Amino acid sequence: MAEIIIVETDPELSLEEICQACHITHDFLFELLEYGAIEPKGVSQESWRFEVQHLHRIQRVLHLQEDLEVNLSGAILACDLLEQIDEMQARIQFLEKITKI
Amino acid sequence: MEHTKYKDYYDVLGVARDAKSDDIKRAYRKLARKYHPDVSKEANAEEHFKEVQEAYEVLKDTKKRAAYDQLGSQWKSGQEFRAPPGWQGFGDVNGSVFTEENQGEGGGGFSDFFEAIFGRATHQQGGQHRPRPIRPQRGQDEHAKIRITLSEAFQGGSKTIYFKVPEIDAQGQIREVTRTLKITIPAGIISGQQLRLSNQGAKGAHGAANGDLFLEIEIEPHPFFTLQAKNVYLTLPITPWEAALGAKITVPTLGGSVDLKIAAGAQTGQTLRLKGRGLPGKSAAGDQYILLQILTPPAKTDAARGLYEKMAKDLPFDPRAHLFS
After folding, report:
1. Which one is predicted more confidently, B83 or B57?
2. Are residues B248 and B157 part of one domain?
3. How far is residue A55's CA from residue B140's CA, in Å, rounded to a whole number?
4. Which of A14, A87, B4, B247 has its CA at a distance of 20 to 30 angstroms from the CA of residue B301?
């Protein structure tokens, strides 16, 4: 009998879940919030809801710090710029496709 | 007896065999920036990065570098390699290779060549004498990307997915296992959207819950539809007479063909919107945009040439007037 697997779209993570998933302390997360690196939905800590893209962003910041010796603010800036590059590349790819003769 | 391929670590870092440690560090830092998977746009960045890391791991440490140099400089990269007879290995490489962090990220171990010289790193947390804590530990979350077709994204429905996940077996070694799951894809899902499958991640330890499995959707390119979020774009070739006189044209959409009325006087680059013909959505469906592209038939026969010449004579039309006024 095939197992029925529930699929949740656009999953949201709590403060606890995202800290656990990224192996970071609450304090580190608060620092990221102070930099505006991630912005959860919700007003109180208990009601904060993070997205998977926030998780990826945190991991990217951690990798930049650990592997490339970047300080926190630099890593956050690099993250922003990298995301901008990704968006631009996607837009270029899209424009190239629809204007192809 | 293991066969491995020799790796020229000096070559990997682009340094001479007698390079000073400063040079080695500088070379490593430059290459790490170039190939870091989070930053790099190079092909096979992750592979390159691992190679660079491994080379640095050996050459930055005087003992390891000396042991490596002992193998001699006559080896070439890629050459079949066997450890010299009587080679004792370097002993266990300490801790940092298999940490909890990279456990779930595809192994993160060093190459067979590295292990042939320096011994295999075992899955241990810190010191060898500290007893493993036997408390329940929630399994790691796992992240994977799955590719679906545009048709599957439009209709949704059941899909069987296969993906490889690293697993720790009873001996504490990491190996890749193929998992099969049957899931329901919701209709209207877009590229980059995330799905969570609760409890489908790594197994929890000692009775704790499993981690979750996160899937990121990637929609495969389509031969003629271009997708952006929920909107679909289609370049529609039309004839000069269809453009000039107007026409009713059948166009494909995700949900089947529809008839489109093109007003007389249409030009290349004009965009027409078919509302709601994109991917379905909870609040609103996306749209399909048609980009008109007038194609002129080739003037290959005398009759065709004649028609064009007649048009040139009978239709006064200067599309470049504004360039020279």
Report:
1. B57
2. no
3. 14
4. B247
On chain B, the residues whose CB falls within 8 A of the CB of A68 are: 29, 32-33, 36, 39
Helix boundaries (H) for B14-111: 21-35, 45-59, 62-70, 100-103
- DSSP assignment, residue B188? T
Are B196 and A7 a contacting pair at CB < 8 A?
yes
Residue B137 included in any domain? no
**Full-model pTM:** 0.75
The type of residue at B315 is L
User: Which chain A residue is nearest to residue B30, measuring alpha carbons?
Assistant: A68
Record: contact B193-A9, CB cut-off 8 A:
yes
ipTM reported for the complex, 2 dp: 0.88
Question: In angstroms, what CA-CA distances link B43 with A46, B78, B260, B283?
Answer: 42, 20, 43, 39
- Please report, for residues A82, B167, B298, the alpha-carbon distance to residue B202 in angstroms, rounded to integers and kept in the order given: 30, 8, 61
Does residue A96 register a pLDDT over 60?
A: yes
Residues B74 and B98 in one domain: yes
Mind listing the pLDDT tens digit for each residue in B278-311? Answer: 999 988 999 999 999 999 999 999 999 999 999 9
Q: Pick the residue of B34, B39, B179, B279 with the most A CBs within 10 A to test the interface with A by mutation.
A: B39
Q: Which residue of B has its CA nearest to A97?
A: B226
Domain containing residue B274: CATH number: 2.60.260.20
Instruction: Count up the domains in chain B and report the number.
Output: 3
| CATH number attached to the domain at A15-98 | 1.10.1660.10
